[in-house]
Structures are given as C-alpha cells and as structure tokens.
Amino acid sequence: MLLRSPQLNEVVTVLESRAVPEGGFCPRSGEPFRSDSTAWGVLALSLLGPVHSLLGGARDKLITAQDSEGMLSVSQEHEEAFWPTSLAVLAWNGSQLHETYWKRSVLYLLKTTGQHRSRIPGEPAGHDPSIHGWPWIRGTHSWIEPTVLAVIALKVTGYGQHDRTREAIRMILNRQLPHGGWNYGNTLVFGRELHPMPESAGAALTALAGEVAPAQVARSLDYLHGEVDRLRTPISLGWALLGLGAWGQWPSNGLALVERCLANQSRYGAYDTSALGVLVLGACAGGASGRHPFLDKPNSVAASMLQ
Amino acid sequence: MADHMDSTTPRRLTRRDVLMAAGVGLVLGVGSLAVPRRYLRMPQQAQVFVDKVAHYEMEIAGSILRGIQELGVSPDELKGKRILLKPNLVETASGAPHINTHPLVLRGTIEAFLRLGAAAVMVAEGPGHRRDTLAVYEESGLADVLTEDHIPFHDLNYITGYELPNAGRQSQMKTLTFPALFKEVDWIVSVAKMKTHHMAGVTLSMKNLFGVMPGIYYGWPKNVLHHAGIENSILDINATLKPNFAIVDGIVGMEGDGPIMGDPKKVGVLVMGRNLAAVDATCCRIMGIDPYKVSYLERADKWLGPLGEASIDQRGESLASVRTNFQLLDEIPAHQGIRLG
Fold first, then answer.
1. N or C: which end of chain B has fewer CB within 10 A?
2. Nearest CA to B187 among B301, B41, B76?
3. Residue B271 belongs to some domain of the structure
4. Within a domain: residue B17?
C-alpha cells in the first residue's frame, strides 16, 4: 500500500467511480471511455497493489483502441492524435497478458516521429528542429511532453538504449531553457528566452533521470524546487513531484502539497481522471515509499527484437 | 442584427467586389462559377463601440452595458440565453499580467450579460502553451474572481469534441473539432486582449479563438493549426464557429514581442461589437496598425466582415482620441510595413 493519506485513498474511490461498464475509464463521470483516461487510471490504481480488480478489464479495453500497427489515438474520429500510445505502453507494462500489445505499440513508436528539418540560419526559433522526438499529433513537429512519454515508455520496456530513445534524450536536452526548466518545447523566439512551465520541466526531468549528469539539469532542478511550493493544480504538481522524485529530490512537504491540491477541488471542481492519475503518481514518486512509478527496472520481458 | 456575420445575408456588390470576382474568373479562365465563395459572400456594415476605461478598477460592467445597448443588441437576444465567454489565457509569468485578458474585464462582462437577462454565463479556455489549464486559471487571477462570483470555468483542452465541416476552407482541414460544450450554449463571446503578435501581426478577437480548439486533438501549442497555416486557421475557425460577439481588453495591452514576451501598453479602452473582423480592424487602427496590412484581416475583408472605415459605424469614442501606436519590432517580419499611415 503506497498511498498514505485519507485524501489519497478518496482519490482511489473517485477513480473507481470513473470506470465504465465495458472496461476502462472515462475522463469524468457519465462520459464514455477514453484511452488517455484509461491509461492514467490504470497507472494510478496499479499503485494500490498489483491486482486491483479493475486493472485487467481496463488493460483489455485499451486493446480495442489499438490498431493493427500498434497505435492508439484519443478517439476514433481523430486517429492522427496518437499521443496516448505511449501511455498505453505504460499501462500494459508489467502485464504478461498484454505483452503482445505493448510490443506492438513500442514498434509503432520506434517507427514514428514528428516533422523535422534542418535548422535554417536566422530562423526565429532557438531550438534545433532536426533532432527527432515525438509529436502530439501525426504530421506535426515534436514537442516535449509526447517525447517524454515515449522515452519513459521505451525505457521501462527495455528500449532505453535504442537509437530513437537516445536521440529523443538529446532532443529534450536541446529544448532545455538557458536559465533552467522547460516549456512545451520552444526555447528562444526572436532571441528572447521563453518562460518555463512546471509540468513540462517535471516531465522532462523524469525522462532524463539516469540519462544525463546532474550538472546538465542543475538549473532546471533549481527552477522546479523554487516552484513546487506554490503549485496548486494537479498536472503541474504531479509532474513536478515526478521530476524531483526521479532525481531523489522529492520535497519533504510533498504529501502536504498533494493534499492541498486535492482540497482545491472545492475551488476548481472535480479533477479529470488523467489529472488525478498524474497527481497520484507524483504523490508516490518519493518519500517513504522509495519507489518511483516510472523508474522501475526495465521490464524483464523486454524484447530484443529491434536491438 | 444588421452587422451580424451571416454569409447568407444579401448585400449590394461594390465595384471592388465585381472587379475582384471578374479578375479571379479571368485568371482561372472558367467564368464566374470558379469565383471563390468568399467573393460571393456579402460583406455588411458593422458597428463597433469604443469606450474609454482608464484602469481596471473602473466600472467595467457599465461600459459593456453601454456598448451592448449602443450596438443594438435587444433584450430578447440575451434573455434566458446561455453565454460562453472565451478569454485570452495563454500562460502566466511573474510581472506580466498583460499576457492575459484581465480578470476584472471578465467580471464586468459576466455582470453585464447577467443584468441583461442571460440565464447563465460561463468562462471557458484551452490555453495553447500550457497543458495545465487550471494553473493558468489560478495564476492569472481569474480563479479568485470566478470563485467569488460563483461562475463556472471549463477547461477546453481536455474536453471531448464534435466535428463540423470547415466552412472557411482556407486550409486543408476538412473538418474542425470544437468542444461539445459549445452545443449547449447560445452565445460565444471572444473576450480578447489587445496585443501585437510575432507571427500574425496582431492577436485580437479572431486569433483568440485558437484557444477553443481542444489540445487533445490539436496538440500543444495547437501545432496542427500552425501546420495548416496560422492565417488560414484563424479564418477557418471564425468562419465555422461564427462567434456572436467580441470584447477586446485594451485597458492595458501588449506591444513589441507579443503575444507573450512583449511590454505592457496602456491604452485605456474596451472595444466591442458583433462582427469580429470589424472589431479587430478598429483595434488595429487604435494600435496604429493598418488592418489591410495584417494578412489574415485583409483576407477576412468583405467575407467575415468589413475592415474599411467607411463600412464600420464607429460608436462611442473617436479613434483619433484613443489612438496609441503600439511598438513594432524591426526583427519581426510580421511587424514590417503594417504601421498605419
């Protein structure tokens, strides 16, 4: 049992209430199944223990959203919005019954990238657009969060040394802001450094943990430490805690911050399933548990099919 | 509703329309059937109201009520209706409140619509840069205001959508996906910020509507729309969504490297109207920018609305009394050659 407060246990009850009868989870009560909500729901409930009764059905439901090449989109009408594919890999990871499916999605990730091109001298954007990562939506440029999710998915399934993963790590580093932190993926535009964002910085630090020297991300860790106490919303706080926890720097008041964030639902309304999932994972990324949700040893059944 | 955007409303063709349509037909060599639909749509006269509001502590609801009345919005149009306000919330930064629509402009707008009989007013946004919409909502100060006023806020980035055929057809996008929430409202109001923009020249009530496109389908930073062409996308979204009203917060705008990194620019105005293109053209003139030199506005002219001063019935303050030239930067191509003579 990794959850250590009554409020976090209430989250579990809420997540359970978001289960849909045919399997999987919806974003909010009364809405239909969605792949991203399901993956985050599985990841959060997995932290309760290995065999929550809803997990099997939810993982099975994700199979129905996967196409023959391994891609999962956010909806059937928007198959180009394939960013939930990485989340599904994470949700299936560790389940022997779903090995075929995560392998298929890993193969899809490895052959998929965004639109990239060589840097044009004098262009306004500061980053190197030639370094491959992953986009949110097929046919567009690669950005930080979808690249982070893909890198984490590839690392936990044993593909951390694959060329695509290594290049993506370079891409994430290339998008780090000069004064520390990350945003959605732009660094400078017309010579001006853009603002960092906690959710992007936390995500990037999660992906880079164990991959780069601490000195390479020291400013970003400083940035996130400076931000974390003021974060009141689940996506920012959850990813900030995941990022700090990945570097062994989960804050001593982390649980209090999570509880304050949960209490803020009286102000913002109920958080959706994905946001709750991120927050639960952040809550479990450090402190007494000593276990980070995304830094387990690579899956022992990781395939060697492409290496 | 003489100035309400409606592509089916008949209008007398101007000599310029005829010449342009004929020119296009000749170029294509296939006669009038080949004329793009936008030249066959009828531009309208539009009314735009400009009010001086020196600072955010002034009575903003009163200003908006005056504007709505001056613009001829009848009580029946609002009584019992559900109004969705779309502010410009992009991201937040310490010391830069001028990035986003000021919360007190939203409060004044809400009060005005409720006083005019609206059944419900809500605020909704899907920021283009941040995945954490609630963080922008909180850090912009809007959460304090809406919580105190018991007004709901909706995150449009993660909301399930519904598709509409792309009525603008400027980009290659065959359909556009809007938040399903929009099917439940009667009026959509763009409550924008008066800013320069380093890619589009200016961002006003039309560009503000990028934020209605859910991030789960369009990504962050709404990159699908960039690949489809920013200008094309602005026109497509506006042509398809057909928003009902616009209010631009020009009390303190942003000049220079907008929409994020620019400097605050105190103008002291609210600009409003039913026709977004006309509202934006008026804002441009206030900013010392020629709307015909802003490419997407020029393309909207006589299609989504009129840009010409002669076609805009200017109510409230005169433009000359409020014109405040916004700084344009030499290094930004979108700023070149757009200064109003």
1. C
2. B76
3. yes
4. no
pLDDT of residue B121: 98
Cβ atoms < 10 Å from Cβ of B178: 23
Tell me how close the Cα of A21 comes to any Cα of chain B, in angstroms. 19
Are A151 and A131 within 8 A, CB to CB?
Answer: no
Cβ-defined contact of B257 to A190 (cutoff 8 Å): yes
The answer as to whether A305 is a domain residue is: no
Cβ burial of B172 (10 Å; 0-12, 13-18, 19+) is exposed
Sign of CA dihedral A268, A244, A156, B216: positive
CATH number of A217's domain? 1.50.10.20
Q: What percent of chain B has pLDDT over 90?
A: 86
A302 occurs within a structural domain:
no
CB contact under 8 A, B223 and A140: yes
Instruction: Say how far apart CA B121 and CA A135 lie, in whole Å.
Output: 35
- Please give the Cα distance from A18 to A54 (Å, whole number): 11
Report pLDDT digits (tens) over A171-200: 999 999 999 999 999 999 999 999 999 999
Measured in whole angstroms, the distance separating CA A278 from the mean position of its chain's CA atoms is 8
Cβ contacts (< 8 Å) between A139 and chain B: which residues?
Answer: 224, 227
Q: Per the structure, how many domains does chain B have? A: 1
Q: How many CB pairs under 8 A join A and B?
A: 112
Contacts of A141 in chain B (CB under 8 A): 223, 227
Q: Quote the distance between the C-alpha of residue A258 and its chain's center.
A: 18
A227 interfacial to chain B (CB closer than 8 Å): no
Residue from A270, A266, A264 nearest A27 by CA = A270
- Rounded to an integer, the average pLDDT of B319-326 is 98
Chain B residues whose CB is inside 8 A of the A78 CB are 177, 217
Residue in B with minimal Cα distance to A196: B93
- pLDDT 10s digits, A17-61: 999 999 999 999 999 999 999 999 999 999 865 568 999 999 999
Q: Is A234 on the interface with B (CB under 8 A)?
A: yes
For residue A288, the SS3 value is helix
Query: Is residue A59 included in any domain, yes or no?
Result: yes
Distance (Å) from the C-alpha of residue B294 to the closest C-alpha of chain A? 19
Check B227 against A269: CB less than 8 A apart.
no
How many Å apart are CA B92 and CA A121, to the nearest integer? 30
Over 80: is that where the pLDDT of B114 sits?
Answer: yes
